[in-house]
Inverse folding.
């Protein structure tokens, strides 16, 4: 390809088929939905706001999703998967010891909350908090996400135990449950305090428990 | 007073002055506001709904409060005080050892959540979670409430330490902060799971930390 040809190419993205357009718009709505729900939860969020932020014409929401509830379900599942990927990235990093991986996850979470000026927390925690106001069907989905994250954390703790980094008395399943109970509280408090300290404080206590203090 | 006189008395409440009416209605709005915010938070709650539930004519809200924000502030302070009283009731019960008092508080919280079928959590936790969507002035109020509860908890832990119930290495201030970080997460999860287990699991881990495991 000559330079002339290069210059002649249209700027911007290559032309898309109608099918690609559909997929892109849908993905954009999911992306915006995730950011809004991570900031403010579900109940208070209007579809209009998400369409406006995504630059999608008002009223075309139902072209992409059945209703707000089905959109919410898709967002819960998408966030659960996204975050499971994040956990794997840290928890399976073989260049670190198991406990160093947990620390790396905590540092990453601190950096993430700071980047968004402590406005964004955890989508699953937000929705768990407002469960009373949500469609009842969301409950099992949210619980599944927690169970999935806990399973990944339990595996990490088991590795740490094998490596002799944590006390042999630690019950890894119970402890991963304890971690996710407290971690959600720490994220909540970090948002309120606009500070990483609650995340540090919780992680510090958790590490003491793992060591058998 | 003879029995006849007693019988002649009008049934129901004694007649009230206009001033009493004002106070009663205002108190009723606060009571209903507390229950609704404890269930569902602030953002999603409309004043109309609270007026309807309180049986107060629509539109008369501004007779009692300046606006929704000032009503919210009053609710945060009322809940903070109410809960501080509850903490005192348990934490200052001299018939129990300090750690038994903490256990009694946990059992009371479990019973309270069960009574309301895990629909109600903590008003301060709910509002902390939705802080991004709240008037910025709420932040300091919510933080003050946590600091107050933490101070009461710190005193209990110091008593437990003096009594030799917990490790002398425990930093009571840090540990009371840890408690409230994790406890809010446990209340959130108990609502989601409709179960007392997250409260038990967190309390159990906390006690291990206090013992120095």
């Amino acid at each position: 390809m000559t330079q002339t040809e290069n210059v002649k190419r249209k700027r911007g993205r290559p032309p898309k088929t109608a099918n690609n357009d559909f997929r892109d718009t849908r993905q954009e709505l999911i992306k915006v939905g995730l950011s809004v729900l991570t900031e403010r939860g579900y109940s208070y969020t209007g579809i209009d706001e998400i369409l406006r932020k995504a630059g999608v014409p008002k009223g075309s929401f139902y072209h992409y999703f059945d209703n707000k509830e089905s959109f919410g379900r898709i967002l819960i599942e998408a966030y659960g998967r996204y975050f499971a990927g994040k956990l794997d990235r840290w928890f399976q990093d073989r260049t670190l010891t198991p406990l160093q991986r947990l620390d790396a996850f905590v540092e990453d979470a601190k950096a993430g909350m700071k980047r968004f000026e402590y406005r964004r927390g955890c989508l699953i925690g937000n929705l768990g908090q407002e469960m009373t106001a949500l469609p009842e069907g969301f409950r099992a989905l949210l619980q599944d996400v927690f169970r999935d994250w806990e399973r990944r954390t339990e595996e990490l703790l088991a590795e740490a135990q094998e490596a002799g980094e944590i006390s042999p008395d630690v019950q890894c399943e119970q402890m991963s449950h304890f971690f996710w109970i407290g971690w959600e509280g720490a994220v909540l408090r970090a948002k309120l305090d606009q500070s990483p300290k609650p995340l540090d404080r919780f992680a510090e206590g958790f590490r003491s428990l793992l060591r058998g203090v």
Remarks:
- The two ends of chain B are 64 Å apart (CA to CA).
- The longest helix of chain B spans residues 138-162.
- Residues 69 and 135 of chain B are 7 Å apart (CA to CA).
- Residues 15-211 of chain B form a domain with the Tetracycline Repressor; domain 2 fold (CATH 1.10.357.10).
